[in-house]
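Quick illustration, no need to memorize.
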Amino acid sequence: MDLQLHGRIAVVGGASEGIGFACARLLAREGADVAIVARRKEPLDDAARRISVDTGRNVIAIAADIRRPEDCTRIVETVTGEFGRIDVLVNNDGAPPLGLLQEFDDAAWDKAVQQNLMSVVRLSRLAVPVMREHGFGRIVNITALSTLQPIARFGLSVATWAGVIGFAKTLSLEVAADRITVNTICPGRIATGRLAKVFGKDAGDDGDAEMMARITREIPMGRVGDPDEIAGMVAFLASPYAAYVTGSTFHVDGGRRASLL
């Protein structure tokens, strides 16, 4: 299926690996030129090379820390300087550390807010005027299922990403007439490095097998998701086929979320 993304310009965060890399690669495979963003330059440059070789599209790497306002400005200025516009913004990054809420001081909270919430606010605020000028825009935020179904020790992520959902819903109302959509995806258990980091044990292969068995028992489909399955949702929401979808929050989780709402 042709998603009609040929020639579109996309910016994808956290794209040196995992979900961000899968999103950038699929958007490029669908014909978009892509700017990928992450903090570490060497793996980011390697990711850009791999995507470009695989797809033949123009891919630029922007090493930046989205927690810094000046880096958010530099990202948007670099992309508009290189490509002339931004059509798709995928707000994606890592996640704050785990721990009991009582354990985190103001510095930890401020870092989480800057990483998860204010980066989305700033990049969206900078990208919207560019999208409005060209009469097309797609903003897709990647959070996590825990935002909708909280888990103990995930409080920094839950609280800040809940703010992203509120921001996205409100922004969607304010930019809908400009043909800009704003949606949020909440992935469940996805096979990335973070899955092992969060749920793994220091027990070698046996520990890894036990971890995976425990995780998959909680998922109705009986398996963890693949980053490409999140990328597929992102690509659809970025396409003209999703022009009437905005202000929505999607849980992509193999059926794990047990709620009617």
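The chain has two domains: 9-188+230-251, 191-224.
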